[in-house]
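Continuing the batch. This is chain 6 of the set; chains 1 through 5 are on the previous pages. Same settings as before, nothing changed between runs. Recording input and output for traceability.
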Amino acid sequence: MMSSRRRSRKSRTKGARRTVALGIHDWRVPIHSHISYLWTSPEEFADTAGFLEAGLRGEDHCLLVGSNNTSGRILSLLGERGFDVEALQATGRLSHFRGARSADAMLATFGAELERAVAAGAPLVRFLGVPAWGDADWPDDESLLSVESSVNALARRYPTVIVCGYDVRSLPGTTLDRAGVGTHPLVLTAGQLIDSADSVSASAFVTSLAYAVQGQAERRRVEEALAAERARLDSITDAALSYLGLDDLLRELLARLRTALRAEFASVRLIDEDAHVLTLRAVDGVPFARLASVRIPLESAQPITVDAPYVVNDLPPPPAGSDNWYARVWSVVGLPLRAGMGVPLRVEGRTIGVLDVASTRTPFTEEDQRLLRVVADRVAPSIERGWLVETVEESRLRMAALSQRLVEVQETERRDIARELHDEVGQVLTGLLFRIAGHGAGGGSPQEEMTAIVNDLISRVRDLSMNLRPPMLDDLGLLPALTWQIDRFETQTGIRVEFRHADLDRRFDPRVEITTFRFVQEALTNVARHAGVTKAKVNMRAGAESLGVRIEDEGRGFDVDPALAARSSGLNGMRERSRLAGGSLNIDSEPGRGTRLSLVLPLHGARPEG
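Output for chain 6:
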């Protein structure tokens, strides 16, 4: 029972004990405080992040204990408030760890973390447990519940303020009484900070303790509702999904989500950080192929937001005649959508994409929104893991294809060299041998004829050497080598090349020079073989940080994706060569609309002029 005595907040905090801002509302508390925070709404839960925020904006160290799901929500809130969570964790100012299943182990962990923070120079350690025991399976044996009481000794021993959060809506009344109230010197609830030894009017607790003091029948009803909600959630994100590949997982997840939310459309879009767009990864409700090409620019993604959950219960149709991403999605779905909502997919404070749904009914309820947030929190790590597995596999396949391509290129070059030596050099040497032997004499002097044959042989050998690697690239640099290559190309093919350049009259890193030269050489060879044109353009510009090359023609063009899918194509060779040099290659082409190749290479390894 609570005592009938009441003391003012002023009397509780006066004296020599230093107080600090709690970060929740405007409360100040003494150092060494151990506080129970009873919360009943998402807004009150979000206030717990303010406790850590107040310390991180100063020099305090912060400890966060709880399940990955609940602690992840706190870390996400800190990220939304401008904190670099990963950097704070790396420096040790913010630590997250889970509890333990035994009282001794839990207390040992708490003590070790507090000792580490103090040793690192923390003037104050803010310790937040949200909740201390996990999200659902709270222990009820005496030894575990006694941990909260033992934490009082830790609070007195170290320069710390400890806040333990309790979700009043989902915890048994005995747990609230014994752990949430009975073992904490201070209790923060219903907007009031009180001593647990004090008595307060019923109105102060009516909101936060409603679930704890209701009758057995009402508690049973609430517990049944919670069980039904858990079953609803588990039906969407049960463990069976973890055994599926990423695409199958997302398809099954979206189908279940549509059923649970009675939505006509659901999708997962991932962020392409290079292109600054959202790209479709999975969809349910319409065929994937019909939406795959719709890319949503991050700067104009409304009503979708990637930094916070959103809900729109009065979706407007796109204006007549518009052709933006919103109009295209609306057209593909083909239904009078009225409501939409979505939530960012976050992994360790970083947004990787968006999970969204849309429906012809309206509105989406708060329970619908909460369900979508919980689903996103559960599946985001699985999506990240699946994407990493795919990336590793794609890299493995790409390296295997590159190795095969290198072998093919080597064999092709060897075959070409052998043919040149046999058909060109060999025949000339045979003719020279015949003339030396006095056979096949012409009308001129033998010496002049043999001199002409030797000069022809020198020219052929020089061409062969130039094809392998032009010496002038090493001796004179990129610009003279390219000028020679383009002049030679025009002479051999009859295709006129408009060559424009800026700031190339200097030396670059050898890797940049050979990559650029081979890119121009291969691209012009493709123009001669496939474009069917009489002219092409080569534009180059070197800046302080990068070198850019653009080669274009107005020829036949081609479908880019099938060409890249052919692992042995020259385009893949150019792309891999650019990657090895740290650059990027963009290929823009369509049948009947010509081709544009753009290469950008970094110059951080550029050699000084001369």
